[in-house]
Amino acid sequence: MYDFNYYKPGSLADAASALAGAEDGKIVAGGMTLIPTMKQRLAQPSDLIDLAAVGDLKGISSDGSSVTIGAMTTHAEVAGSSDVQLVIPALAAVAEGIGDPQVRNCGTIGGSVANNDPAADYPAACLALNATIVTNKGEYSADDFFTGMFDTALDEDEILTAVKFPKPDKAAYMKFPNPASRYAMVGVCVAQTGGAARVAVTGAGQDGVFRASEMEAALASNFAPEALDGISVSADDLNSDIHASAEYRAHLIGVMAKRAVAAA
């Protein structure tokens, strides 16, 4: 690990100021990805700005039709929230399936969403549930926020502050996890609101999370597993690695999508 300056601001304004003044500053939300990357000397930020003491970024609120989750809320807190379980139980299930107990008690929703790991669970939930990503500078729809593998619409000096999830009529998430890391080799989140359906896939795409439009069209007409019969996702733009080939991931997308619809 290289040398760096460490800051632990007590307010969002102080955090934004520290980030703007840093030569190459990075935000620490949970540190589940950044710290191991720094230990391997794959990253060399000049400054780390730790958001752990910014109380305004923690907590969950609900008005019955939506759930707003502060960026520094841990996965375990999302999974155990009665508000989340009542309004969007699928989201609580997503959080419960992330990593292991240590990761769930240290990792945060803001860190996961901002990092946009191509195998992470929350980006799929955000896309399928049509979430709004809130920052200290404005708001983004999930469709506009995730722009590529490990890439988002966030500016270098912009801080993610919360994620707002509207209540769907039905939703569920199913993934085929790597048995060691629990990351999704393929994960599919489906949601139905009114006559519209949204299907988001993580763990498979070369550009990270993406929506399966053909599946969405089929489910809009008939939200049932059999509506997906005969629909396949091309393997051309999918990942192929030591864990699974692109063709196997394409097959898993269909399997996980049907399981998610059945669960929803």
Quick overview:
By secondary structure, the chain is an alpha+beta fold. The chain has helices at 12-21, 34-39, 75-80, 82-87, 89-96, 101-106, 109-115, 122-128, 142-145, 213-221, 246-263, and strands at 5-7, 25-28, 47-50, 60-62, 66-70, 132-135, 139-141, 146-148, 151-152, 160-166, 170-177, 184-193, 196-202, 210-211. The protein has 11 helices and 14 strands.
Describe the fold and architecture.
- By secondary structure, the protein is of the alpha+beta class.
- It folds into three domains: 45 residues, 2-Layer Sandwich (Uridine Diphospho-n-acetylenolpyruvylglucosamine Reductase, domain 2), CATH 3.30.43; 109 residues, Uridine Diphospho-n-acetylenolpyruvylglucosamine Reductase, domain 3, CATH 3.30.465.10; 94 residues, Enolase-like, domain 1 (2-Layer Sandwich).
- The protein has eleven helices and 14 strands.
- It starts with a strand and ends with a helix.
- The relative contact order is 0.12.
- The model has no long low-confidence stretch (mean pLDDT 96).
Which helices and strands, and how do they pair?
Layout: E1 5-7, H1 12-21, E2 25-28, H2 34-39, E3 47-50, E4 60-62, E5 66-70, H3 75-80, H4 82-87, H5 89-96, H6 101-106, H7 109-115, H8 122-128, E6 132-135, E7 139-141, H9 142-145, E8 146-148, E9 151-152, E10 160-166, E11 170-177, E12 184-193, E13 196-202, E14 210-211, H10 213-221, H11 246-263
Parallel strand pairs: 1-3, 2-3
Antiparallel strand pairs: 4-5, 5-10, 6-7, 6-10, 8-9, 11-12, 12-13, 13-14
